[in-house]
Amino acid sequence: MASEEPSRQQTEKLPKDDPAPAIRDILEIVDNLHKKFVPPSQKEQDLTKSRSQGFNPTNPSQAPEKERLEKTKSLPVPSSTEQDDTERYIPKLRRNLRLLKEDVVKLQDLRCEVADEVGTHITPLKNLLEKETSSTAKLTKGMKKDLEDINKKIFNLMCQVPLLPNKRRKPGGLDSEGGEGENNGKGIECLPAIHVNEEDLKRLAVFRDVRDKFKNLSTDHKRICLLSFAVFSENQEVNRTMLMYWWIGEGILPDQVKPEDAVKDILKEFMEKRLIEPVENKRKEEPNSYKMTPFVHSSVVLISTEIKLFDIYHKGKKPSMHKSDLNKVCLVEGSSSQQEAKATKMPDVNLIETVFNVSERFPDFAFKWFSEDQRSAKKKFGPMSKTVFKSLKVFYLGRWERTAKRHIEVENPELMRHLKHMTKLRLLSFQGISRIERLDDAVCKLRELIILDLRACYNLEKLPEKIDSLKALTYLDITDCYMIDRMPKRLSWLNNLVVLKGFVVSDANDEEKVCTLAELVHLEKLRKLSITINKGDFSVNDLFLAVEEFKSLEKFKVAWGGINEHKKVEATGGVKEFLRTISNVTKGQAAEARKRRKVPEQLPKKLEKLDLQCFPDPVLPTWLQPHKLGGLKKLYIKGGTELTGFGKFETDESKKCEVKVLRLKFLPRFKVEWRELGELFPNLEFLDKYQSPQVSFCPCDGIGIWRKKPQVKATLN
Q1: How many CA atoms within 13 Å lie on the side-chain side of 574?
Q2: CA distances in angstroms from 447 to 67, 249, 452, listed in the order given
Q3: Which of 60-64, 193-197, 540-544, 551-555 has the highest mean pLDDT?
Q4: Residue spans of beta strands (DSSP E) within 92-165
Q5: What percentage of the chain reaches a pLDDT higher than 70?
Q6: Angle subtended at Cα 389 by Cα 383 and Cα 391, rounded to the nearest 5 degrees
């Protein structure tokens, strides 16, 4: 202890807001709790998974974002069937504190916040240590609850470490020049001087203008669409696809037109009325994200509060979670610590229509509202009846932002079993949620589910085998689910599927269980498809032969990735020699088959957009050259270190090309001149050239964008 005194004296000289002493003190207490409560066999296992990335913990800025994300994903969730409850709370808290101690060294922006938060927990934990003097002490239910609450707050602090901007925030808060969008990764806050001061706001002309435009919208559904912007903060970028998913789930889009077109029309009307603004992006032909200015947003918040659509904002308080009179529940930062997070405290759960996660990091408590043990449900349906929540249509627990700045995790994936009670669910989103390794079979009970959004569920390893039970499924997004290496066979039985993102072509050869790309031809309504190819023996010819007969396909995106070879049983001796002989014969037969194999005659007839990423060959096949693209309107080639150009072409034939939008990115060897592009693509209106140095003499601006100037028709006097 004597050797520690100088360091303690030195730390006392540090600034008052330095978190190091508080972390050191609380960690010492937790270490003692660990020794007292945790069995010896468990003690050395808790740290083995905490730091496996191999970077310098004293300089977190050196760690790539993916590695930083892996750190938080690697924290294991102890199952109640595998470990005693005692082993769940203290080791978890101890491990998170050690991670926090390492991460906070260079992060000065967290000094005050960490010092204040951690300091509040020292006395309760110290009292717990002094109270329990017995060598056989056991945690009580109250102790477990206190430890779990503290752990959530500590882990919440730890999660903020990779969310900070690279440069130090300047004084001035959100309006300062140091802000980097997305609210700097912080929780959703409200402006205390605008919409909370109702009387002052109502006297403003902007409020009266917004209110009049709101009343003049042609349908109630459009009014709900406008008020949905109230759950986001002012000037927050909101993606159009996310809005479409939400509005489909609510059932407020017209049935007569495609949802994509309906959403564009609604947002266009809002823009014309100056209720929202498009987020400018010069690389986009048209906007796909929108935002709402502070005064308009405050007016929309006030209107939504008056009609009791959402219940989030209250004067003098941070946003909080409550069920509105119109049965909408928005999860905000800190909701997991509210009383309403308990299944018995949330009123009338059988009436809830929408659960939408605005900013909560630990949303799994929401599953418990819809369990078979829920008291209000038993009162509603009777003790002997099957528990069913027929009102719930939208269960959006995932991330609505398109950036990964907000880390979300489900601590107990077993709670997904409660999905079986949500029989009328239309939208289910787990986007960006970590720690979900598999979907519970309860998902297959959702016969009316239209949208299943699993985008960026990095731990997800497989889809349910009986996925065909989702008869109404129309949109399935498994983009960036890198652990999935095969598609279930019954995926091709989803007759209503219109959009499929993230399909994987791998070397898995179990034909009875794996869905191949060619089998998707049975999906006659499929309009949009994106795939990743992780199979070595799958050529460009194979790819387009597989999709040639897709009758309704309009948008096709393909990315060539790494080869995912599955493990094979090693053979030895004579068996190995025999297999080698058979393999050589098979390879020879395969080569002959490739020589006899036909090439695609054309692209899918209705294809309008083709996006090729990491193209593997040095030249485009003859049937993929510009003059043979049929009615294609958009062509993207992004990445292809060997690709050298469009190949030989005939000037007369090139006139058949209807491409209007061309993107050429990350093509170091791709050689073409502006004059040739004009001959190849006579209808070209938009060119995006980026990191393709041999695409030359193009009249692009400083970022590589060219747009055709609109022609002005001359008028005769």
Answers
A1: 0
A2: 38, 14, 12
A3: 551-555
A4: none
A5: 73
A6: 140
Give the integer Cα–Cα distance in Å for 461 and 436. 8
Instruction: Count other Cβ atoms within 10 Å, centred on residue 447.
Output: 13
More confident residue, 296 or 117: 296
For residue 456, the model assigns a pLDDT of 93
Q: How far is CA 123 from the centre of its chain?
A: 39
Q: Residue 514 carries which DSSP code?
A: B
Going by C-alpha positions, the residue among 316, 408, 308 that lies closest to residue 358 is: 408
- In the Cβ-directed half-sphere of 342, how many Cα atoms lie within 13 Å? 6
Q: What is the DSSP letter of 17?
A: T
> What token pair was written down for 706?
């060219």
Rg, Å, the chain Cα set: 29
Q: Which two tokens stand for residue 411?
A: 């601590």
Domain boundaries, the chain: 194-301, 600-707
User: Which one-letter DSSP state was computed for residue 537?
Assistant: S
> Is pTM beyond 0.90 here?
no
Its CATH architecture, for the domain 194-301, is: Orthogonal Bundle (1.10)
Letter for the amino acid at 573? G
The CB density around residue 551, as the number of other CB atoms within 10 Å, is 12
Q: Residue 372: what pLDDT?
A: 75
Q: Which of 194, 187, 225, 189 is nearest to 298 (CA)?
A: 194
DSSP 462: B
Q: Dihedrals φ, ψ of 129, to 5°? A: -65, -45
CA distance 459 to 480: 10
Rounded mean pLDDT of 175-190? 40
Length of the chain (residues):
717
Q: Which residues make Cβ contacts (< 8 Å) with residue 197, sequence separation at least 6?
A: none
| Six-digit token string for 258 | 């495609």
Asked whether residue 13 carries a pLDDT value surpassing 50, the answer given is no
